[in-house]
Amino acid sequence: MTKDSNIKRSKAIGKHLHFNSSYIEPNIDPHLREILQKVSDPEIPVLTVLDLGVIREAIEIDNVIHIKLTPTYSGCPAMDVLGDDLKTVFSTIGKEVEVKLVLSPAWSTDWISEEGLQKMEAYGIARPLSESLDKEALIGNARVVKCTNCGSRNTKKISQFGSTACKALFQCEDCQEPFDYFKCLK
Amino acid sequence: MNKESLYDYILTIADNCLILGQRLGELCGHGPSLETDIAGTNISLDLIGQTRSFYQYAADIEGKGKTEDDIAFLRLEKDYKNCLLVEQPNDHFGYVIGRQYLWDTFYLLFLNELQNSSDETLSAIAKKGIKEVSYHRRFSGDWVKRLGDGSEESHLKMQEVVNGLWPYVDELFDMTGVSKELIKQGIAVDLSKLRETYFKQVSALLEEATLEVPERKYFVYGGKKGVHSEYFGYLLSDLQYMQRTYPNMTW
Q1: Quick check: A73 and B139 CB within 8 A?
Q2: What residue ranges do the domains of chain B occupy?
Q3: Contacts of A73 in chain B (CB under 8 A)
Q4: Per-residue pLDDT of chain B (251 residues; tens, 9 = 90+)
Q5: A46 — contact with chain B (CB < 8 Å)?
């Protein structure tokens, strides 16, 4: 494929990259944001719980922080760890935490912040594509996932399942680097 | 609403996820290739996660202070309500894939209905599960096609798998454990309504995989009544070993 057609293709793909279609704003007390930013996903440490969008509610009532946490995937082992980490971080400022796990509405990759997506890419995990492109990429019909190493889209799926439930494994055909792709979940 | 019948109903769903999750977990480190090994364990993880949500809810409903772990680990063989299909042994990879596809197709149809349940918790678990199970079905369906329409040997083996597992599929639609009252209240799914679509979808995929759809001569039932195949006792002893040997141990 020529460079020109690569660019055209990238532009066409760019049109699909709107990540706010099923976005739902969480209810978080502004004064809790700073401390919540200190809690990271144990599997993807560059992402905070706020970047991931797994905190659906965080409010303070009578010195107790009430948090509603939603799992990315039903069996995600990170959730138990996150619950403990939230308790630990708030205990440093002498606050008690009540964590409640909520399933509905179900978490979507649309809830990852733009800043989170950028950090994820810099960390070596390709960002989720739109639902239709995601399907094409995973079936192997289209080469659209961007290599986190060299930026080429000449990449192929190696494995539908990756190192965690939320990722698939890809490899770049230009620089040969294997990398994780964060699957679209809607 | 009758608490007991809702509790039983949740187990008739969740026990399938637990037992299939356990079967897939057995493959951890033993898959035929790294990719399929990871796939099996990832699917297992999703299923166990769904099991936890179901069991937590069941424990709440029962209100006797039990936990999800009590329900998973401390019941006797006859108390598990999973269907016979999901407890069938891994044997070879074809069986793993065939069993998975026959289950995924049913489970996705089922969850699609359960998401409309008048019970909010069941509906929420279903909505979450649909996203995961669609992905599982894509994986297992692709492999059925690849093996069925693959080499002469893989074709023969896959046909043997389909024939071997076929007697267990009709139990998926058996209404044991689903009270009429729960269906009337819009809580439970009327399984008989899924049967036709199920056989249509499975037949279409088998055809695409150049496999023959077995003629339905007889079916086996029992799991949902707690009457399991011989394999089940061995599976359960693996699953429960730690809790039975060292009661209440945690790690």
Answers
A1: no
A2: 3-245
A3: 45-46, 49, 132
A4: 689 999 999 999 999 999 999 999 999 999 999 999 999 999 999 999 999 999 999 999 999 999 999 999 999 999 999 999 999 999 999 999 999 999 999 999 999 999 999 999 999 999 999 999 999 999 999 999 999 999 999 999 999 999 999 999 999 999 998 889 999 999 999 999 999 999 999 999 999 999 999 997 789 999 999 999 999 999 999 999 999 999 988 87
A5: no
How far apart (Å, rounded) are the C-alpha atoms in residues A17 and A31? Answer: 31
pTM: 0.91
Are A173 and A150 spatial neighbours (Cβ–Cβ below 8 Å)? Answer: no
- Which residue range(s) make up the domain with A48? 27-107
For chain B, say whether A128 makes contact (Cβ under 8 Å). no
Distance CA A43, CA B110 (A): 32
CATH of the domain at A94: 3.30.300.130
Strand ordering across the sheet containing A155-159: A125-126, A178-182, A167-172, A155-159
Look at chain A and count its residues: 186
User: Which residues, in sequence order, are CB contacts of B163 under 8 Å at separation 6+?
Assistant: B214
Nearest Cα neighbor of B176 from B220, B225, B229 is B225
- Residue B37 touches partner A, C-beta closer than 8 Å: no
CATH superfamily of B3-245: Ferritin, core subunit, four-helix bundle (1.20.1260.10)
Interface A–B counts its CB contacts (< 8 A) at 70
Q: Residue A184 is encoded by which pair of tokens?
A: 């679209």
A40 bridge partner residues = A48
DSSP 3-state of A125? strand
A120 and A154 co-located in one domain? yes
Structure tokens that stand for A186 in this block: 């809607």
Distance in angstroms (rounded) separating the CA atoms of residues A54 and A52: 6
Structural domain tally of chain A?
A: 2
Provide the CB-side half-sphere exposure for B216 (13 A, CA).
Answer: 8
